[in-house]
Amino acid sequence: MAAFIFDLDGTLIDSVHLHVLAWQQSLAEAGVKIDGWRIHRRIGMSGGLLLQALSHECKCQLSVGQAKEVEERHGEIFRQSANPPQPLRGAIELVDHLKQSKVPFGIATSGSRPGIDPLLRSLKIGDDIVVVERKRVDHAKPEPDELLRCQQKMGVRAEECFVVGDAVWDLLAAGRARMFSIGLLCGGAGPQTLFEAGAFRVFDDPAELHESLYQLGI
Prior knowledge:
43% helix; DNA polymerase, domain 1; six-stranded parallel beta sheet; globular; alpha/beta; Rossmann fold
C-alpha cells in the first residue's frame, strides 16, 4: 500500500517567496543585510538551521539571543502579510483525491503551530490527518526525524512512503529515511537540483503530480 508524506511550504502552499521576504526583513532589522537568493535556497530548513547556515555563509555571527529574536520576528512578519499564502495549483484537489481514494497521507513540515494552522485550513486538512511539526521532533530536515515520526503515526512502513517536497532538504531527509522522494518545481529549485538530491520523479506542481499518480502505481 502506497502512502504519501508531504512537505507544506512550497510543496502544497505558495509561501516560499513570503518566507524569503520575511527572513530578509527580520535579518535587516537585526543589522544583517543579505540577498534574497541566498535565503531562498535555504528555505525548507528549520529556522535555527537556516540562520546557522546563513551566518556561516555571510560571516555574520548572530548570538543565540539575536537568532531567537530574528526567528520570532520572521514569524510575525510572515503572519502579518497583506497577501496571505494560498494553496498551490491543484493542491486542494490532490489532497481531496487522496482522501476519497483512501490513500494514506500526512504532513511533515519544518514549520510549527500556530503558524501552520491557517495553511492547513486552506487545504481543508483537519485533525484526521497526521501532521508532524518541527518542534515535535529532535532534529529538522535534512535529518529524517519528521518523516519517520509521520510514517510511524500513519501506521505504514517506510518503504511504502513517497515523500513529496520542493527543496533538497526534503529529498535528503527521504533518502536517510529510506523512502522514495518526489520533487516539485513550485518551490523554485530546478529539476537537476532535485534529481541530484535523490528525487525519483520531478513534477511542476501538485496539479501535475495529481495527473501523474499512475506513474507511481496509484
